[in-house]
Amino acid sequence: MSENQDKNWENTFELNKQLHDQRMVSDFELDLAIRKGLSQGKKTDRDVRKRRSIFVAAAAMMSVFMIFVASIRVSPAFASTVRDMPGLNKFVDLIRYDSLFAKAWEHDFLQEVGISDRSEDTVFTVGSILADEDRILILYSLKGPEVREGKANDYMAFELTNGKGEKISEQRLSVLPKEIEEAVDTYEKLDFRLLDGQTMPERLILKVNMIGHHYEIPFTVDKERFAGMREVIPVDKQMEVDGQKVNIDQVTITPLQAKVHVTADPNNTMQINDLVDLRLNDNTDYKRRMETVQGDLSTGERTYYFESPYFSQTDSLTLEAKGFFLNKRDQVFTFNIETVETIHTPNPHIVLDKVEETGDGIQVSISTEGIYDQTEYPYFNPYVQFFNEDNTFTDAAGKEYPMNDAKLLMWTGPGTESHEMTFSIPKREYKQPLSFKVKEYPGFAKADINIKIK
After folding, report:
1. What is the pLDDT of residues 96-143, one digit of tens each?
2. Is 391 left (phi over 0), alpha (psi -120 to 50) or beta?
3. pLDDT tens-digit series, residues 3-54
4. Judging by DSSP bridges, how do beta strands 331-336 and 318-327 pair with one another?
5. Predicted model pTM
6. Strand partners, 435
7. CB-based contact 78:102 (threshold 8 Å)
8. Pick from 30, 69, 28, 25: nearest CA to 51
9. Residues 417/406, Cβ–Cβ less than 8 Å
C-alpha cells in the first residue's frame, strides 16, 4: 500500500473509531434477560468497549445495516466432525453453535477456498465459504508475528466486489482484540448480504484494509451448489393497527436466509418506525426471530432478514408481530438551557434533564424516565433514533448549529426501562429557546398480528 493510501485509510479508521466509540449496545435477548431479573437497577452504558455495538443516533447520518445474531446449539457430533477436518478445525469455536453451518454441512454447501494474500509478514487467507444467491459467509484467518504479538491494527475494513471490482454488499468493519493473554493467530468469519438487485456472481474479490496492510483475495463461487434454490412468494397483505397499515410485499427464501420486504402505507397519519417482536413461524416449536434489517420504515420501506426455513420442509409459514413502534410525525423538541426548562416536547415523559458545562462545551441531557412504565417486554424499543439525520439545532433567531457527540443511553432496572439522550454544543451565548427536529421517540400500538405467507 502506498504512503498516500495508508494515510487515507488511517483517516478512515479514525472516523470509524469515533463512530464505534459512540455506539451503545442493546439486543432483544439481553433485554429479555433484564426483564427476568438478571440485571437489577443497573445503569447500562453498553458501548463498543464491551464488544457489542448497535445503531444509535450518533451515527444517524449513516445508513446502518443492523446485525443481530440468532443461533442455536448444534450437535456435538457436528462440532467433532468439523474439528477433525483440515482447514476447518481452527474455526470450530466460531461455528460449533451455529445451526446454519450444521445445515450447510448436511447439504454440501460448504466450499473450500484456501487462497491467501501476503503483506509484509502477515498472511490473510480465505479458508472456506458458505453461499447462496443473496448471502455469503467467509471463514478467514490472519497470521503473522504482528498478530501473534498483539501488534496488528485493531480495525479492519472489508469490501466485497464482483470480478469487475463493483461493490455488491455493504462494507464491513471488524475489531481485533487489543490485548490477548496468549499469542494466537486470528480465525474469524465474515457475513455479507448482497445489496438489493444483486445476485451472487461467480467471481468475487475480498478487499481487506488495515493501517499498514492491504489484501485482495479473488476467489470463485460454485453456483451449481445452490442453483434453483430460491423461492419468491408474493404476499401483498396488510398488517393494520389503530388504522395504521404496513404492507407485506413479498418473502424471498434461499438456503441461508429468508427476506421479508415491507412498505408503510403512504396514507398513514402516524409515523411507523418498526414492527414489534417480528418473527417467522414455520409451525414448529422454533420461531425464527429477525436477524438483521435494511432500510428505514419511517421513510417508506424496510427489509427484514431471518434465519432460513429452506430446509425445514414445511408447507406453512406465518409472519407474526406484536404491533407497531410509532409516533406522531414532524415533531420538535424545544428547550431553554439557561433555565433548564422544557418548552415543547412530543411526549410529557421526554424532558430536558441536565445542562452541564464541560471544558469548551455544554453537555445537554434529555430523559425519558417513566415512558415505559406499566409496559412489558417486548414493547421496550431499544433502537430509538431520537435525533434527526442532520444532527443540528436552531436558536430562537433561526440560526442553525451542529450537535456533537449525540448518543443514546439506556437505563434498565426491575420492571422499568428508559432512555437518556445526550449531546454537546459549543460554549457560547444562544438566543433562547433552542429546538431540534425529532426523528422518532418511544411509542407503540399493541396488536396480535398473524399474516399467512403460505
Report:
1. 566 777 777 778 888 999 999 999 888 999 999 999 999 999 999 888
2. left
3. 544 444 444 444 444 433 333 333 333 333 333 332 233 333 333 323 222 3
4. unpaired
5. 0.76
6. 334, 394
7. yes
8. 25
9. no
